[in-house]
Queue: 3 jobs
Job 1
Amino acid sequence: MKVRLVVMLKQGVLDPQGKAINQKLHNLEFSEVQDVRVGKVIDLELTETSSEKAKQRTTEMAQKLLVNGVIENFEVEVLS
Amino acid sequence: MKVRLVVMLKQGVLDPQGKAINQKLHNLEFSEVQDVRVGKVIDLELTETSSEKAKQRTTEMAQKLLVNGVIENFEVEVLS
Amino acid sequence: MNKKQQPIVNEKLASEFGLSTEEYAKVLTIMGRNPSLTELGIFSVMWSEHCSYKSSRAWLKTLPTKAPWVIHGPGENAGVVDIGQGFAAIFKMESHNHPSFIEPYQGAATGVGGILRDVFTMGARPIANLNALRFGSPDHSSTRHIVDGVVRGIGGYGNCVGVPTVGGEVNFHSSYNGNPLVNAMTVGVARKDKIFLSAAAGIGNPVIYVGSKTGRDGIHGATMASAEFDEDAASKRPTVQVGDPFVEKLLIEACLELMETDAIVAIQDMGAAGLTSSAVEMAGKGGVGIELDLDHVPQRESHMTAYEMMLSESQERMLMILRPDRTDVAKQIFEKWELDFAIIGHLTDTGHIVVRHNGKIEADIPLKPLADEAPLYHRPTAPSPAPAPIGDLKIEKSIEETLLQLLGCADLASRAWIWNQYDSTIGGQTVYRPGKADAALVQVDKTTIGLALTTDCTPRYCAANAKIGGAQAVVEAWRNITAVGAKPLAVTDNLNFGNPEKPEVMGQIADVIEGMKKACTILDFPVVSGNVSLYNETRDQEGKAVSVLPTPAIGGLGVIEDTSKAVGNSLIGGCELVIIGETKGHLGQTIWLREIMGQETGAPPSIDLQTEKANGDFVRNEILNGNILACHDVSDGGLLVAITEMVLASNIGCTLDVPESGMRPEAYWFGEDQARYVVVTSNKDKLLQNAKEKNIPARVIAYAGGDGLVFPSGSVITIARLREANNGFFTALMKG
Amino acid sequence: MKIGIVVFPGINRERDMVLAFERVTGHTPTIIWHRETHLPKVDLIVLPGGFSYGDYLRCGAMAAHSPIMQEISHFAKNGGYVLGVCNGFQILTEAGLLPGALLPNASLRFLSQDCYLRVERDDTPYTNGWKKGDVFLTPMAHGDGNYFADTKTLKMLEDDNRIVFRYASASGKVDPQDQTLNPNGSINAIAGIISENGRICGMMPHPEDLVDPLMGGDDGKPLFQGIMETLTQ
Ligand SMILES: Nc1ncnc2c1ncn2[C@@H]1O[C@H](COP(=O)(O)OP(=O)(O)O)[C@@H](O)[C@H]1O
Ligand SMILES: [Mg+2]
């Protein structure tokens, strides 16, 4: 079972990367860009076969290790 | 319009971060983890209103700046 | 915080903001009416421990701050000393303890960013960073995570801005479990006649905001930094500030470029309490009024209130007063560096700070009483209990085994794991980087001048006897600078203690400062800048509040006119090792006693300042004369550890002479008597002769050469084995 | 000899580079701000180290897509000499002027330490101050120095003799699997490569920080001596 964890900075937390990329895209004349936020994606291949269970375990991993709850939020999505 | 660009290392490119996370998860007794790959997600807020057009422009941004074709693959997804 | 929910300002809210009943009463008297929320916010941050030094100010005033070479002492953004050839060194140390507990990476990173701004705001290009770190017990569950984040954060920020991190210190102790100390120091260099101050002047002059946009970062950070931690800490987390070292780098370059013009009247970074403290302090110091229109403040988020903007601690921002006819020049420079630039107000003759937002006056406070009436406490002090006497010593280990165990202990293990993550060579002027000399040595561009830099403190001595500990911290910094051949010039300090409302803690503060004062006075080593961090305590498993060990970190700066005359701590094959100073075998509070005997007992080694001065002056002279080719002071771990560190630094072994008789070997090898240096010479006769003439104890103790440490018994420990013991600690700590 | 050092926002080793050229060759390079639209007439362009644009997104990526890089590409295609060190190397790969990519160090930590490099070719403008097989000491300071190229590219680089420096032991032993010898995990222990025409060179470590015995040694000097010899011929 393949699970995707998407980790983003919380709203209101400064995202220096996103800011710099935004500015650069404007210099490259992608002027339609309003805002950029950069996050991480972690794709996990699990032996688990129940998608319910896979989600739950991934959430545990997120809380225990993969996500810094102080500044980050996350979403879990089962890919296949 | 909100667009998400997911950037992953190509197959065959070493992913030391994924490897380290895999190892750590096993140490934490998430033994169901088979493989971990780490990528980036870039969320773009565009003034564009056609989802077709937004996708196309994001692909251009990817090719021009956001993705390094030597080592990375990408997918574009319209979020809203 | 949104308009609908604006809370009612009353005594209860004031207390939530950290103002006591009496303090709030004073606010009411000053204002003559109920303050607005924004006004209350301004009072609460300006009167917080962090900004007002209300518990420590009375004691700090007793420290010596003057010398002929001191250009600016405490009171400016950083201390300034004359280093010769028309240059000045500008330096300061600052803590980011509480933020580093909440988010170790960002807490430490923004600590580095903040101290850098304190230094370049005065016109100096930063040329070196140092960091004094204190972590919990290595086996405590959070220690690894905090060490990892803090070290990454310091490296991440310093490496990116391109300032070499050249030194520091690290200790581990259970009293820092969950309350690490992260003290960052920056040293910069400016032309002596081009130093920028913060006192605003010129009624009508524009107030300029530059740097990053303002968000809701760290609102309440300044008051948070003064509140002790409990289980509640987690809920305070959303206020974490994130640093952007890239923007900081641009800000450094832009400010230095602008400083080449005559546009700036006054300048100050926005540090703790952001716009509030910078505006209030600049206007206050200049004796003028200031009016801000927050509509012009560059904002990252929408619908920010006046309260939020005034208290935001968004990073990488500066406030300047410019000559009105030069704003265009300034604007161009900041645009070139792609930084925000905004005129957000002007100076007035009202003596008030007036804050407007959306056409409404959100705050109007008279500045003089805000500063003059700031609380000042003479809190009660009480002595700390004397340490238990040294108990029975049942010695079973050989000297060899003991040495290997000590080399691997938390406080003596190699710090290479840390400094290998810090860029220490950038700038191309680093003469001695971490591990290569007792003080780091950085050359000043286009001169032969070297700045010798160090941070020192031995918290276990301070806990056992705060007066001795305070003096010892100063003395060790002075020794480390001396040991490279430099003249110690001045000190910055970072005084980290527990809750000052507890008389015992206040007693430690008073005694540490008393000890520092004596040492600084006799060694002619004045304090020119510093920072105080209080309420460093956390709750143990039983819920009892535990104070950190009293930790007055001392940042020392010295100067050597000709860097080519400086010496490091590496052995030189074929040379003799000579011990300068008297070995008496003091064992109280030694690392040996703690690590090998399991006792934190006894009095710390006594400090004789006249002896320190005599021995140090002798060593410095002999270095400059060329009679000493390498030098290492004897501190933690004693004589044998000092010699071994020299072996490890050079990869050259040595053969130890038979110890002086009349002392047990442990006391001789691991005692921590002060005022001692191990020096390397190829001219032993001359050196011993000179020592004799000056009445300085000196004795040959070892011969350099070979690839191992050869003991008087004939047994040998190879360098490889020593290194393995020394490197194991961090590898084990960070594994997994 | 005219040397231009290009500065992007966030670049921070340009002063080291100037100092090294001054110390070794007596020549003071010109600083070229990234917004300049025309390159001044120079013989060699140096892209120094640092964190251009914070190294956000990918190291060197945003600088590589700056307008001035088109000028530099032009300059290179017309046979100009270009040296990229550290971030400069990353910029050159991101701009496609050199093959491969630089990934995060295998240890996932910033590495600031000394390393030894073995000189693989002594017939380039950058290495003719050494002899093939020479080993020299140099500081390195980077988070992303793990050189990667796909199998085909790697074979091409090896076959065409385009690797100029490899991480090695003090005695010149190369072992890509040994982390003490190949600290960042680079494929085939590659520390520096050169373009097909032998004029564009990229390397990760910082010889410019080791050209003065007072600062710990002068092992990096031959790089600058070699450049001077080539450019003053
Ligand atoms: N946090 C740190 N960052 C950089 N260098 C450090 C750090 N901690 C220790 N060092 C370096 O390690 C070496 C040994 O430190 P320490 O044992 O405190 O020295 P000493 O006891 O001689 O003052 C010094 O060169 C010091 O600068
Ligand atoms: Mg020390």
Job 2
Amino acid sequence: MSAGWTREQMAARAAQDIPDGAYVNLGIGIPELVAQFVPEGREFIYHTENGLLGMGPQPTEEERDLDLMNAGKKHVTIIPGAAYFHHADSFSMIRGGHIDVCVLGTMQVAANGDIANWSTGAPDAIPAVGGAMDLVQGVKRIFVITQHTTKTGDPKLVEKCSYPLTGPGVVSRIFTDLAVVDVTEDGFRVAELAPGINFEEVREKTGAPILPPK
Amino acid sequence: MSAGWTREQMAARAAQDIPDGAYVNLGIGIPELVAQFVPEGREFIYHTENGLLGMGPQPTEEERDLDLMNAGKKHVTIIPGAAYFHHADSFSMIRGGHIDVCVLGTMQVAANGDIANWSTGAPDAIPAVGGAMDLVQGVKRIFVITQHTTKTGDPKLVEKCSYPLTGPGVVSRIFTDLAVVDVTEDGFRVAELAPGINFEEVREKTGAPILPPK
Amino acid sequence: MINKQYASVAEAVADIPDGATVMVGGFGASGSPIELLHALIDHGATDLTVINNNTGNGEVGLAALIGNGQVSKMICSFPRSSQSKVFPELYRAGKVALEIVPQGTLAERIRAAGAGVPAFYTPTTVGTVLAEGKEVREFNGRPYVMESWLKADFALIKCEVADSLGNLTYNKTARNFSPLMCMAATTTVVQTKTLVDRGGIDPEHVVTPGIFVNRVVEVTQPIHEDVLIAEGRSYP
Amino acid sequence: MINKQYASVAEAVADIPDGATVMVGGFGASGSPIELLHALIDHGATDLTVINNNTGNGEVGLAALIGNGQVSKMICSFPRSSQSKVFPELYRAGKVALEIVPQGTLAERIRAAGAGVPAFYTPTTVGTVLAEGKEVREFNGRPYVMESWLKADFALIKCEVADSLGNLTYNKTARNFSPLMCMAATTTVVQTKTLVDRGGIDPEHVVTPGIFVNRVVEVTQPIHEDVLIAEGRSYP
């Protein structure tokens, strides 16, 4: 077993690439952890698509308000300077290119930046897309945080997504437990290896050609 | 000279045809007078397209607020229960069919309901449309208040507008100094004659075939 | 004097006919008009097409309406949730149809209906199965999908404060789709926690102007869906 | 800590380049950002395309900017007014171009730009000369005209209260086009009568969320255009 990055370390690494003052939308799962690792001296403002800019951390039991939740339907708090708005305004922020960074989990990412994170396409699956397709088309930079492979060892970074796409050619950077991987015109390229991980291991576990760090 | 209706009487007559509880947009000029003649027992709510629902009468000098005006850029007041909103919401009310009645002045109205009230089409004229084209397409019922003829005696109710259209086939009823005239599938039809006016006079002063009252 | 107040939720929904299209405000449990939904269950209209972001939770509110067999079609962005079992079962049994619409497109289609815009273009769903059969068109070299407005016969809305003219404010993220749905329905029915006289809401703070609202019912102690679910309740 | 405050109107407009497209908030005199406009006159950028509902009044603010020869094109719905002589003279002399857009279409095109919607359909202008050359398409048997989004490099906005994150409220009908323009410009510059710390505006009452605002300058005693005109003033 390799060392690599933990879930928290992946989130912390992703946070390093978000500029000060950015408006950020965090997907459900590991992406949510990004908010715990804002680098010293920076501030991010969190958007949640159900109508809130300036989302704060989870509430204590006393703070909890049943009408104050995020897009993952978890109860949240607000920071001073927050604003509420309706869904059309909220998705204007997304589709209109006003959100700087979106950090998403995924099922698959392809070497051309295609992402598939909403449906397995299984015949008996109930389709549920939420705001995923709006986010990947509208937000300026799409980051993905994901384990490098599935629980059964299949690569999640692939030549071509086998699952139905959420959006084509939208992902710019991927943060896995093994490496930071860029989507470039030449396909995947490792930008950084996790501690104790060598390029060969990353190459083996990637389902598409991948270039070593420059 | 015939008796006919004064400007105030034309406005009062138009007000009679506006149902209780209606949301109403009044154009500049004689249409503005409608607000002074709301029939006993009825209430109209006035919309002004620069972002106010619940417009009240003109302010006294003390009441006047420079930031509170109507679409004609006159200072106004608000009634209890008013609401401010931005221009996109305001024109959603118009274009989305939420305003019940719009009362407009006009240069010409044609027998098929075409209205021309924004431009003479003169080569040296500076075009200025404002919200007129949105109103005639969006509001449920378009009423027109106008003198039956121009100052030089030319008919304003015509077979076909010679001025550039504001909108085609949108007017439902016209209130002139001589008569109330409906736009029907058969063209103009007098619905009501002003006191002291006979049908022949109306027919003479109308620039298109016009049917007598049923 | 205009007064849009209705005496009861039952009266306010009494004329919703079978086959109606009904928008229901709320995002998950937040903003869900539980009392109006339960009144609609009591009323019994069937063959409804319901537009909501989700499909309800537990066995109350929207989930109960679906579970009661009154809904023939759902239009939503996310029909799954950890507490939503009613819809998946009926859907798999072929008893309720589903139109899946991305959340931002759903919001914009509803707004478009209220704004008199029959169609618009969006980048959302380009290159995906959800764009299949839809017109794709390039603007400035980028492809966009054409989407049409989405109207309803009725909207059922929960708000925080309403006045007798139908001006509304909401509570926090319970606002979500509700102001849009008020614009897009022929008849908008609102349950409000507090009903005030005209002038009771600052004109600068009105979120939904009264022109978009037809009926207001005061429900001073609205039950929150989350509370009903935590108590394991079902309806009827 | 994010802080969007700028020290002066001069600094806030200093990088507006020649040839820029600039949206200017306001409807007539209400909401017109006089101090920002005068700073733009001092700054001297030329060949500007300006988007506003009108063309200014008297010889101050927007009218003065046009009169100073800095505007090569106006996009507006209503270029005439009883107190607007500057634009008509320059327009007739062929020194400034004009694109006339119906008021509701102007508002919706600006919103569309902010909302990422490149084009939409509206019934407005159907059957008129303003629809000439535009795509007309039927939906449900009714013809509509296609209109495209309208973006800008800068927006100059007047508001009532702003916080340091750029959340804004407005005063009465001075709101008009301003919230839309904030959405549609690459760089939105706001003059505010009152600047408060974050938290100083109730999150329920924010009209323009800070994400749409880049720069905020406090102008505690803004001069109203109507007052300048009543005094017969001109600028510079």
Job 3
Amino acid sequence: MSNNINMSVEIAGVRLKNPVLAASGTFGFGREYSEYFDLSLLGGISVKGLTLKPRKGNPPPRIAETPSGILNSVGLQNPGVHYFIENEIPFLRKYDTAIIANASGNTVEEYEQMVEILSDADIDAIELNLSCPNVKEGCMSFGSTAEGIVNVVKRVKKYAKKPLIVKLTPNVTDIVEIAKAAEDSGADALSLINTLLGMAIDAKTRKPILKNITGGLSGPAIKPVALRMVYQVAQNVKIPVIGMGGISNGTDAVEFLLAGASAVMVGTAGLVNPYAWIETVKGIEEYMKETNISDVKELIGGLII
Amino acid sequence: MSNNINMSVEIAGVRLKNPVLAASGTFGFGREYSEYFDLSLLGGISVKGLTLKPRKGNPPPRIAETPSGILNSVGLQNPGVHYFIENEIPFLRKYDTAIIANASGNTVEEYEQMVEILSDADIDAIELNLSCPNVKEGCMSFGSTAEGIVNVVKRVKKYAKKPLIVKLTPNVTDIVEIAKAAEDSGADALSLINTLLGMAIDAKTRKPILKNITGGLSGPAIKPVALRMVYQVAQNVKIPVIGMGGISNGTDAVEFLLAGASAVMVGTAGLVNPYAWIETVKGIEEYMKETNISDVKELIGGLII
Amino acid sequence: MNLIERVRKAERLSSDIYLIRIESERISSSASAGQFVNIKCPGPEVYLRRPISICSIDRSEKTIDIVFQVRGKGTRLLSDIKAGDTLDILGPLGRGFTICPEHKNILVAGGGIGIFPLLQVLKDHPAERKTALLGFRNKSAVVMEDEFNKYSTDLKIATDDGSYGIQGFVTALLQNAISEDRPDMVYICGPAIMMEQCVKLLKEKDIPCEVSMEQRMGCGMGACLVCACKTRSGSDWDYSHVCKDGPVFSGDRIIFESE
Amino acid sequence: MNLIERVRKAERLSSDIYLIRIESERISSSASAGQFVNIKCPGPEVYLRRPISICSIDRSEKTIDIVFQVRGKGTRLLSDIKAGDTLDILGPLGRGFTICPEHKNILVAGGGIGIFPLLQVLKDHPAERKTALLGFRNKSAVVMEDEFNKYSTDLKIATDDGSYGIQGFVTALLQNAISEDRPDMVYICGPAIMMEQCVKLLKEKDIPCEVSMEQRMGCGMGACLVCACKTRSGSDWDYSHVCKDGPVFSGDRIIFESE
Ligand SMILES: Cc1cc2nc3c(=O)[nH]c(=O)nc-3n(C[C@H](O)[C@H](O)[C@H](O)COP(=O)(O)OP(=O)(O)OC[C@H]3O[C@@H](n4cnc5c(N)ncnc54)[C@H](O)[C@@H]3O)c2cc1C
Ligand SMILES: Cc1cc2nc3c(=O)[nH]c(=O)nc-3n(C[C@H](O)[C@H](O)[C@H](O)COP(=O)(O)OP(=O)(O)OC[C@H]3O[C@@H](n4cnc5c(N)ncnc54)[C@H](O)[C@@H]3O)c2cc1C
Ligand SMILES: Cc1cc2nc3c(=O)[nH]c(=O)nc-3n(C[C@H](O)[C@H](O)[C@H](O)COP(=O)(O)O)c2cc1C
Ligand SMILES: Cc1cc2nc3c(=O)[nH]c(=O)nc-3n(C[C@H](O)[C@H](O)[C@H](O)COP(=O)(O)O)c2cc1C
Ligand code: FES
Ligand code: FES
């Protein structure tokens, strides 16, 4: 876009052309949105959460609208990591954007296998999802205690030949403790936040709206919680933080960068506005022009207290 | 209002004429809103959070607007429990509504003294605030672990001659564990949720909007999290639960009752609409008429799974 | 990147049914019968878009019509739209009805708001015989009778209470229709229970059919995977996605709730 | 329980300043100079009400005027309001300016959007001499000159860049004015730094003054305690609340930021 503006950032050795990534689970494997804009405009794409074997996911309804947000209970429906490697990476690699493989497991062994398999795939980084609230086993149960984090991250680290981003759940008492545990166990970067566990009820039918009863809250509603956690974590770890939660435009993204995020992800906003991802990139650029900043890295942690 | 509709509920031995209460900190001591409607229309009032000595609270700005919600960092500004007893109870007692004294302390000893003092005052129940995110010492630090809860509740229980409602913070990994700890330690009822810890940043000035940096998130944005926690807790404790978080009208209130709350509190919504409290009462009545329910108690826990 | 289109006409068809005619070269030029649009309802407290079927396409006038019932917040806001207003609208989306020129005798069966996506099938299909079977709650709920009359060769209406047309459900109309005359293809849209019964009836007679499914949606384009719908997949089953694999599915692919 | 009022007139006064005239018996009959209203801005993504001072009251026509600058989302939405629209509006709220009939010589000093609440003081005050000192950024920011001219006996305008009136700040105008002629009372509203300096100047001369404070608000009526403002309380200090104890305070009560 503009020549005198440097939008690139680096996360755990991966150079991103700009700090805006698509959040896992909201962007599929990119195919759908490639009809709306050039995927090369994005800093990166975190693909739909992958598991070792294909997963059917949870029964519908899987989405509920809430004030300035949504609840989802997809439950990691995905075609499995092997399908991804064979069928989706070749498509994504046609674009000049970082590919981040979002990986989940039911057991520590599964996490190990996922990381081993993905380490040999043509991707840029692995995002370990230790935070999905919509599946019974694994995932959030590993991510909601420091011991759980240490246990998984230390063990998968041995298999990791790609940068390891650990994605944190916000459903914890002390996010800083969890973040430090991940850092100490070998995470190369952190991403936060995943969704807040929530619920919606239809007073007319007297039933929960989601068949799964509870689901993960995302969208603008959670932005204040996300910003707070990103701020707290960025103050307390040395590894880079990828911030997300309710980002809908450039101003929101700038707030996360100021709070200490080195990059951001946009998720739910894109479900409503398919251009949210690229508008966020443009919005950051506009902010930089207005405020005479030539390098986006100057914004990172630039909060004035 | 209508004769054939029974709106009354009982919380820990306190009969409420209807299940709608004003949430602590949003209703002052009732004086302001008494100019807008008859306070006797309310089931009860949880007054502004009290401490042993007067507190000045935090520096301004103390409020930020967020998507479908607000952040506040009032920090328990209040004239002290003695002033309350002398000057505010006589005013409130002119109305036929339950008075709930919301009490905080910096130390366990202060909580004990508060409960001792309030036990001799002309109030209906004590709401122990173990969940305020806006003060450095005490409060949330007691409320965010089961041990903290046990420690405070067990000790104050000895001094309690009034029903003891324990108010829980949502900023925890496992709300059920916390709720059970409160129940086991002698709580007569639970109220939840207090605010979620959040933050807002002004991209223009690059500063946090709140002088206190972080604040408590409330309003419709948090309703899904509140509903989920109330549902989880109500399934797992025997004592009554008072639900709150983002309730703005009768439909919202009905959702909380269905999820298992025996009564609800309305807070933030009233800052925007001063009639939110009484409109919520009317809204529940209308729902009951439309669905042919004559006793509001039939709604409690009436969720169909 | 422009999703904003102008409203040419907004009309109330019955107590709670509204028609909006939208000027859109983008949508009208590529849409086919059975596809839908995803609309941002202008107003507070509505976050997600709302999926609404395309009821009618006028390719020369470059407009599409949507017809909807007021159900909640979003559709209430939409009902306030006036001619000249603009709408933020994604589409056309999804997989529409299959129109096979070899079919000479087709039938559409719609219940309630399910009738709307069927109109364009009648308009676009080259079949000689086009039967339309429509079911409504009661007389005052009957809408678009003239349009369906115009584009069908045979129109039958049923109401639950018999206040208009025949008393009973569309399924009864369908049972009669297929016992008299075997259609080459049946297009169905309506409440899940009605679609399920129709599909069952047709299966017994081995008549192919397509159904248009509904599910709560996010993106509307296949990325978020929330709009799951149980479908047969060999001897197993899978979740397909209404917004991309559908909303129209072959009747025999759907696994209905009660199965 | 009705807070809904009709807009009689909506007018743009300068590039970013708008006037709205609201028909309200409720508000106009009880409002006094310096009080404010709390307005629900009609549109998405604005949750809280917005506090705006009452600029002018017409008690016979039963209207009030508010004048505001577009600052963010809420005021942008308000700027779209048209005559005939309705607004959900709480008020009158707060403690207004003290009008002492014994005072014969008063002065109002306003900076930027701070000038608006001062107009009604001039209109209501029975003093013989009424000086108005107004500060603006530049010439194009100057608004309501005629109105202030009409209700004052002496009007002076300063602009930061000298493009209109005298070059400089309102504080300079005030310094001159009080050195020539000692007012009985001064009413001040503007940016915090301007108010602080004015109060300091006046304190030196022992001239009483009132200031109108701003703070982010919730309820607007004294219940939520968010709108804190540091005030003297004996030898100690306390947080008063702008919405109820103010927005107008005696100048010597306020503890300004830099103290
Ligand atoms: C592919 C498709 C085509 C449709 N075509 C039409 C049509 O032509 N005419 C018509 O009247 N209606 C149609 N519907 C149903 C229509 O989408 C819902 O009535 C509408 O979304 C309700 O929104 P609301 O805000 O009024 O209700 P609310 O209950 O307030 O909506 C809350 C949320 O639930 C979703 N939702 C509620 N009901 C439904 C439903 N039945 N199906 C899907 N999502 C729902 C909304 O989209 C929203 O996200 C269609 C639905 C789908 C999936
Ligand atoms: C007692 C009082 C009287 C006022 N009178 C006037 C007036 O007559 N004319 C006028 O133009 N402005 C006046 N203001 C300022 C006006 O309230 C703000 O400009 C307005 O709230 C900004 O809202 P926004 O949505 O456009 O901005 P945003 O920045 O989007 O608002 C976000 C939030 O911050 C609050 N906020 C932002 N700026 C201010 C501010 N300066 N003071 C208080 N809250 C703020 C908003 O109310 C809202 O809650 C007054 C403020 C107060 C407290
Ligand atoms: C429909 C949906 C599906 C999601 N699936 C995943 C997933 O598979 N893996 C994951 O790590 N996060 C998943 N998330 C969480 C998002 O990546 C993101 O952390 C969260 O939604 C907050 O960001 P947002 O508010 O911008 O959406 C999903 C979110 C949504 C809305
Ligand atoms: C301005 C403000 C002040 C509050 N002060 C208190 C308090 O003193 N004690 C307390 O227990 N909760 C306090 N709360 C929390 C509310 O009582 C309530 O738990 C929370 O706001 C969620 O409900 P709501 O979304 O309906 O506001 C306060 C909330 C707000 C918005
Ligand atoms: S709505 Fe997103 S996949 Fe169907
Ligand atoms: S805004 Fe609530 S006390 Fe002032």
